[in-house]
From TrEMBL:
This is Response regulator transcription factor. Residues 4-120 form the Response regulatory domain. The keyword Phosphoprotein applies. CDD domains: LuxR_C_like, REC_NarL-like. The keyword Transcription applies. Keywords: DNA-binding, Phosphoprotein, Transcription, Transcription regulation. It comes from Actinomadura parmotrematis.
Length: 219
């Protein structure tokens, strides 16, 4: 199966470079290239890509705004954010907007194509340095979540909350099953139910929401 990719970046040279790297892969095809967020949203509607490789800082509608418009509009594909910026608020903004992955532009070409494959397969991806910065920011108290009685968690059962806590702490379904004394298939059912009730696409979004609501706290 060929992975259809849309590249969105305001720098023509960067767009050309990403396009060349991606098009060289036998399992990928570049279906469009956009110079700003508005064009990315328009082309995504026209070409139905599996993955949008999205820059954050672009003129007009930036990558975060474009990502929010895509996910809110029922876009079936995934958004992989690439940026040169390391500032934490861009990471939070991208993930909360609905991105499934976040990489820095200084990653190797091999990392880029593997990241596209990962998010296209329905998985979530964060560059190691991005994950570290998220954890450090929460630990410093730079991100202060509201109380755990946040109304966004209201649809969940007590067991589903337990499962969400373990997912946010990085446990696999098998590890969560062992911790709760239930079967892995049962955990998977609970995870799917959590995703459905809260409108989540993957474990990254689940983790962000768990911290945002105060259900999980550093340490």
């Amino acid at each position: 199966m060929t992975i259809r990719v849309l590249v969105a970046d305001d720098q023509r040279v960067v767009r050309a470079g990403f396009t060349a790297i991606i098009a060289a892969e036998p399992d990928m095809a570049v279906v469009g290239a956009a110079g700003d967020g508005a064009e990315a949203v328009r082309l995504a509607g026209e070409t139905a890509p599996d993955v949008v490789v999205m820059d954050i800082r672009m003129p007009g509608a930036d990558g975060l705004a474009a990502t929010r418009r895509l996910t809110a509009g029922g876009f079936a594909g995934r958004v992989l954010v690439l940026t040169t910026f390391h500032r934490d608020e861009y990471v939070y903004g991208a993930l909360r907007a609905g991105a499934s992955g976040f990489l820095l532009k200084d990653c190797d070409p091999e990392e880029l194509v593997q990241a596209i494959r990962t998010v296209a397969a329905g998985e979530a991806l964060l560059a190691p340095e991005v994950t570290r910065r998220l954890v450090e920011a929460f630990a410093r108290g730079d991100v202060l979540p509201p109380p755990a009685d946040d109304e966004r968690l209201a649809p969940l059962t007590a067991r589903e909350r337990e499962v969400l806590v373990l997912v946010a702490r990085g446990l696999t379904n098998g590890e969560a099953a062992a911790a709760l004394g239930i079967g892995a298939a049962t955990v998977k059912t609970h995870v799917n139910s959590v995703f459905a009730k809260l409108g989540l696409r993957d474990r990254v979004q689940a983790t962000i929401l768990a911290y945002d609501t105060g259900l999980v706290r550093p340490g």
